[in-house]
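Notes from the pairing session

We agreed to fold both candidates in a single pass and log them together. This is the raw record for the first candidate, unedited. Please don't reformat it; downstream parsing expects exactly this layout.

Candidate A
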Amino acid sequence: MARKQIAGYRIESQARVVFRRFGRNKMALVSLFVLTAIILSCIFVPIFSPYHFNNNEMGNKNQPPSGSHWLGTDNNGRDVFTRLFYGGRISLVIGVLVVLVEVVLGVVVGACSGYYGGRVDSFLMRVTEIFMSLPYMIVAITIIAIFGSPDKERFPGMVAFIKSIGSDVWKISLLVIVMGVLFWPDMARIIRGQVLSIRNMEYMEACEALGISDRSRIFKHILPNVLSSVIVYATLGIASVILLETALSFLGLGVDPITPTWGSLIQTARDVTNIQKRLWLWMPAGGMIFLTVMCFNLLGDGLRDALDPKSKE
């Protein structure tokens, strides 16, 4: 039961308390609604648009917004509205996949480091600090520039593998791996700190007295208590990943330009003429990036407040 009555007091479940706190945060609710609308629009864009994201109509190049093309057309005559929401699919998928990699690595390293302590903690934290000292953008640019389009003579096997799976799949996978591997240290440090505090609690001493295995203690008794921090950090992390993907695509290091992402769409802003006279080519993607990142940040703040046991009612 969600509610119990004990000695005249009403006891609520933790889930109900969290939902009530979250429901009081109007900005978080609005952000959740807007994000849901964006995600659904990206999924069901074929219903709203009769165009394919890569259909070229050379006679309609650089047309301003009109009844037939709601957000105009680009320099190849492709419908900007269609490409905007198809691009949102890839940008959001990259964000979610990177955060999944980040969460898995960060939780495993942080939980092992905080639980076992000693030499294990010292070794894992030194590795974490090495990764944290790396300049994320420079490392990402270097790796993606080398392996995104490898030299046929130096990497013939890799080139054949890329052709077999498709260039887009390879570049998306490369982006996910590179960003996920670079971003996990912050998550690991957060989880380590919480595991250190939980490890010394009384119920963990009871688990040790009962002879419960380390694996069960970590996965059944410790990780569920740090889940709230993981959820909040993952929500905020998606926003950071979208911004980094945008920067890499703007530099020409994302997926192939023929495949739309929000970063590749905003890449047209590198042309002064487009910035001054063709605002419809880059402003929709820029606005969508801003709106999505802002909503993820507000949603993360709302979840943090709702899941905080010390939060005031």
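Candidate B (folded immediately after A)
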Amino acid sequence: MDFETMVRMTQKELKAAVSEELTKMGYSVKASKGYVYAEGEVPILLVAHLDTVHGERVKDIFYSKDGNRLISPQGIGGDDRCGVHIIFQVIQNARCHVLFCEDEETGALGAREFAKSKIRPEVNYIIEVDRRGADDAVFYGCNNRKFTDFVCGFGFNEEHGSFSDISVIAPRLGIAAANLSSGYHNEHSRSEFVDLTEMASTAERLGRMVNTTSTKFKYVERERQMSLFGSGEYGQQMLDLWGYMSEPLEEKKEMLMPLPESAYLVIDGHPIENHGDYLMDARSNVYDFVHDLGAAVKAENTSAYTQTGVPLRFDEDDAIKIKVLPLERALEMLRSA
């Protein structure tokens, strides 16, 4: 199953397709409510999620001039079709345990169903492939330094993140876990694109990792630390983003407020968690910060709310000047990159 075929599928279609593909590979597959699980022989659990935030099926796919980047006006859905594709590349040569979860973007519903199940795979560690970029490794609430050193020994750099499926699964199983970059960028927006070279690099390094003998790494709870923006990894992520966005920028600028930790978004009718890269203007318009362009792009059909369901209010005291680009211009710049 090639990558273009994957990104054109709905979650339901992809769930059926991965189940069929795993069966063809000789796996015994359990397709249950919220997830697909296949028991392997190599004591490592590989995880990715089947859904995307985009409500429209991918119809048009465009490539950059060098053929290395993919983008779609409907939203390419690399988050997390990249992870699904990479896992299938890895298990061609290493029969790891596999878990594909549904509805990560709406609260890790599939991961929660798996955590409630009686399935307890005997594995040394868990790797999720659902992180933007090329070289990140995010450990969330897990602070097993030996495991961190092991993962980063394959060319990944420890970074901060807010939430993913392993945030639910790892503490439940008591097994250390990391989330690796999978080559997508500008997730949760229609300016999302996929870098095929970065995908291949993660597949190669993960392949070496799972074929390297290791001991069992236990889940060690991270001690939460306070920051001006809140506690733990989210606070650090917001501090990093604040510093990055406060750098001098050119072109049109607007006063935008980074969304607080407690906020959540509704995109095309689907509620999702705030991952730290969203902002809002005084008119309650929501923007996605595009790191590759150093600018914000207005998010279509997106609203921000408090935890109690009340529309989020703009606070000028928390706002900073950010470069803003029209979606069409951002897409043009990303295609020509």
